[in-house]
Amino acid sequence: MESGNQSTVTEFIFTGFPRLQDGSLLYFFPLLFIYTFIIIGNLLIFSAVRMDTHLHNPMYNFISLFSFLEIWYTTATIPKMLSNLISEKKAISMMGCFLQMYFFHSLGNSEGILLTTMAVDRYVAICNPLRYQMIMTPRLCTQLSAGSCIFGFLILLPEIVMISTLPFCWPNQIHQIFCDLVPVLSLACTDTSMILIEDVIHAVTIIITFLIIALSYVRIVTVILRIPSSEGRQKAFSTCAGHLMVFLIFFGSVSLMYLRFSDTYPPVLDTAIALMFTVLAPFFNPIIYSLRNKDMNNAIKKLFCFQKVLNKSGD
């Protein structure tokens, strides 16, 4: 490959989007609605937990942090998707691509670690309730929350820095709807085996995280089934059902996206999986954490009542 072909690549073109003449505008408004719903829903959950003192406990503090991360996780990709849907040229600058990869995956890593922390929290609460307050202290919860974010943002930094130093060749087409590691690495003009080894390590990390959460819930379900009263079992299940559903959606979409049995999928299936991973999974999380949770519903209602009181006092 000639050096000229390497040096002239200053942007990448997405090929996963439909063209304007093929009706890409038809996808714009549903995606805009979903993105708006995700932002408003997660802001409501975050604000409700912050303002309602009854929800100032480890479980809801973790949920509020997860909602906060979800806002930025979707913002890393969806606004650019919306822009590309109404543009003739579906492009992104190289620096924009690297930044999108970094923030998208760093926020995703932080969410995965936080889900593991939430599973451990539910494990302690249900399997060792008498020592729960002693173990899950406010200080430990703060350390776990901060550690999830710090580790999530640091683990990917060396890989993104290495990718940003690679030379890239023509054609500069990314066969996806957002910048992802494997599609971008496939455009590099040099050997990327060392970086791909890191991807294998990340895949192993995903599997280990999944196993930790899965084993925690196997133990939790075993303990719940031993509770003699049906009311007690139902109450115990209700405290972890939401997190279990979010866990299944999150890691199910991650597995479809990154733990593949085939190197390539048909383009339509590839785009569908990417949309489920980046859009649909975050769309369901506010629904799960609000509609299926009476305490959260009450806190959100109080938030609206508080806003009405403020509006009246302002008048």
UniProtKB/TrEMBL annotation:
Residues 41-289 form the G-protein coupled receptors family 1 profile domain. One of its GO terms (cellular component) is plasma membrane. Its main location: membrane. GO terms for molecular function: G protein-coupled receptor activity; olfactory receptor activity. Coiled coil: none annotated. SUPFAM superfamilies: Family A G protein-coupled receptor-like. InterPro entries: GPCR_Rhodpsn, GPCR_Rhodpsn_7TM, Olfact_rcpt, Olfactory_GPCR1. It comes from the Eukaryota. PANTHER family: G-PROTEIN COUPLED RECEPTOR, OLFACTORY RECEPTOR. Keywords: Cell membrane, Disulfide bond, G-protein coupled receptor, Glycoprotein, Membrane, Olfaction, Receptor, Sensory transduction, Transducer, Transmembrane, Transmembrane helix. The keyword Glycoprotein applies. This is Olfactory receptor. It is found in: Cell membrane.
